[in-house]
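User: If only I could read backbone structure tokens as easily as an amino acid sequence. Underneath my words sits a plain record pairing an amino acid chain with its backbone structure tokens. This is the protein in question:
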Amino acid sequence: MELSWVPSLVKLKALKKLDLHMTAIEEFPEGMECLCNLKYLDLSNTRLKAFPTRILPKLCHLQCLGISVPAGGQEVASLRKLETLLCNFSYFEDEE
């Protein structure tokens, strides 16, 4: 049986690693913005459709991020301690 739901993370402020890689979650876990000490986050190969805005900048200690859903480029760029980024790029059309 695959993990398909994660309870609220609001009280896990000291959490440093969250690996939800290859799970069946479809909704972003509640309280992610409270994980201010998080250094490792892997949300790759999940059933998430998008990364909510304004959460990544709050995860300012992230050193490793794995995502396979759309996330704002400027938000990812705001992660000053990020050392490893694992992501998938979708096809982009040239807007010219």
